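Thread: "does anyone have the structure for this chain?"

Original post by V.I.:
We have the sequence but no experimental structure in hand. Need at least a predicted one for the grant figures.
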Amino acid sequence: TELIHFLAATHRVVVLGGLAVISHGLSRVTHDADCWLEPNLSTELWCEAVEKILLKWPRLRLVSIGDWSELPVAELAGYIEDFGVVRILGATQPFDIFRRPNEMEVSGFEEVWNRATPQDDGTRLPDVVDLLVTKQDTGRAKDTYDIQFLEGKAEEMYLERLPQTGADEALDMLARFLNPKVAEAAARHADPRVREAGLDFLRELAASGDPFARDLLEG
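Reply from O.Q.:
Generated one for you, tokens below.
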């Protein structure tokens, strides 16, 4: 969107939400826009970046994410420290700007940025697993389909890459995403540490009553 492009012209911006899921290949519509504006700026500089949007487009309004009540610019710094995201209304669609996305920490921005894919507009698209993390435990029904899509895509990517990676990279991958099929692939890896990591996960699932994991261990 125009507002995201405006931010990305002078700051590092990672696209989130529905726009990011669509860019990863899911065919669906989205009624808002979300981005992660680099949070490593001081709170004052971060707020100034947001305020420049309001100065350029005076018709836009800054609102709280919970009840969409008007948020005075003077209160933005305190608000963003508490809630991690602010919403702008008045454009073609609501625009949510994150300083601290769901299930992410400010300190994690650099790693997410470095893993993300550069886009033609200057933004970056987070990798599948990072985007999946931001969708977890939101309590929103609309995220369920996104999660299923992203998990499927992550699984496909892992099953392709895992057998070809060295032990250290494989273990890093498993620390970020792991499900029964990925664990099964890990249990066949050439390195014993990776095999044990996969087997440990399957044993935990089997102990909790998962029949798929039990069948894999007995097979």
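V.I.: this helps a lot. Strands lie at 13-16, 33-37, 61-63, 85-89, 95-98, 117-118, 124-125.
O.Q.: and The chain is about 50% helix and 10% strand.
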